[in-house]
From TrEMBL:
SUPFAM superfamilies: cAMP-binding domain-like (SSF51206). It comes from the Eukaryota. The keyword Transmembrane applies. The keyword Transmembrane applies. It comes from Branchiostoma floridae (Florida lancelet). InterPro entries: cNMP-bd_dom_sf, POPDC1-3, POPDC1-3_dom, RmlC-like_jellyroll. It is found in: Membrane. This is Popeye domain-containing protein 3-like isoform X1. Keywords: Membrane, Transmembrane, Transmembrane helix. Signal peptide: none annotated. The gene is LOC118422933. The chain crosses the membrane at residues 23-44, 51-71, 77-95. It is a multi-pass membrane protein.
Length: 313
């Protein structure tokens, strides 16, 4: 090696200022380039278990090729030695990820629930596992004709998700809507009472139309879990919000005003109406009953639904 050379012979030279004076005119070997291709591919892994496994496999291949380059092409024991250490670490991490994926296994029923509700939101399997393994969470069967909840009697002390079967929601003897697979049986009650010390009782009757199987969480245990796992709380809130929206739209199609019009749950706020129609207080008083279809006959729709909008006073 020449006096002004450092590193492998002919790769680069260093001047008196300590900077590179010249570089090798040709590119390094294809082994060196291939290693960095694998390193680049490793950046495309996600945060899920499958994404982590992909990342560690790419890093393993990259360091493995770099180890060959260090010992064979660069003839540098330190480069080859460090890359070999990282190769072993990445291999162990990949094996650990595979083991974690093997541990996260569910029954066929719970797997279908995950694929239908949580996989589209890219929820990691470990987060879903924490939800379905909540203390006292269990899968319950309900025979046809039996009630899941009885109006005015059953306390709101749980949250349940229909796995299979159909149930009907009844209020004052009238059918409001059906509950099918991958829908929550009591999402309105849960959302209205989750922050209250005394959640009260069901205002509707929920009856099984067919043999049903549902997944149920006790209220207290689920609230404790969501308090500890904020990400899981946001995910469940999004899933419940979609379920509630579907229920309200179904009810909106059935709720009729005394004038024979349908309520619209997408009505804009009063401030927007005032700006649009330039109404004063007197004009608003005459406008509101006409806009909402409410008259002196009553404040609720003809169905008597507990979810029917109330005319503003």
């Amino acid at each position: 090696m020449a006096d002004n050379d450092t590193g492998p012979v002919g790769i680069y030279t260093i001047n008196e200022s300590g900077l590179c004076d010249s570089y090798i005119p040709t590119s390094l070997s294809g082994v060196f380039q291939l290693a960095h291709v694998f390193f680049g591919l490793a950046y495309f892994g996600g945060s899920t278990l499958h994404g982590l496994l992909y990342t560690y496999i790419c890093l393993f291949l990259g360091y493995l090729v770099f180890t060959v380059y260090g010992f064979q092409d660069a003839c540098a024991a330190d480069i080859g030695g460090w890359c070999f250490v990282f190769t072993v670490l990445c291999l162990l991490q990949a094996i650990h990820s595979i083991w974690r994926m093997r541990e996260v296994s569910f029954s066929e029923e719970l797997t279908k629930v995950y694929e239908a509700l949580f996989h589209p939101l890219q929820v990691p399997l470990l987060v879903y596992k924490a939800l379905v393994e909540c203390p006292n969470c269990q899968i319950v069967s309900l025979e046809q004709g039996n009630n899941y909840a009885t109006e005015g009697k059953t306390p709101v002390d749980r949250l349940s998700l229909m796995i299979s079967g159909k149930a009907v929601v009844i209020h004052d003897g009238k059918k409001l809507h059906m509950i099918g697979r991958n829908q929550f049986l009591d999402s309105p009650e849960w959302e209205s009472a989750k922050d209250q010390e005394d959640p009260g009782k069901f205002q509707v009757t929920i009856r099984a139309e067919t043999d049903c199987v549902y997944l149920t969480w006790p209220r207290r245990e689920l609230l404790n879990l969501l308090a500890r796992r904020r990400y899981l709380a946001r995910v469940l809130s999004a899933v419940l919000g979609r379920d509630l929206t579907n229920k309200f739209y179904i009810l909106n199609e059935k709720v009729m005003t005394p004038r024979g019009n349908k309520y619209d749950i997408r009505l804009p706020g009063f401030s927007r109406l005032l700006g649009q129609f330039d109404l004063d207080a007197k004009g608003l008083a005459s406008f509101v009953p006409h806009r909402f279809g409410a008259g002196p006959e009553g404040d609720r729709g003809t169905t008597g639904s507990p979810y029917a909008p109330v005319r503003p006073k």
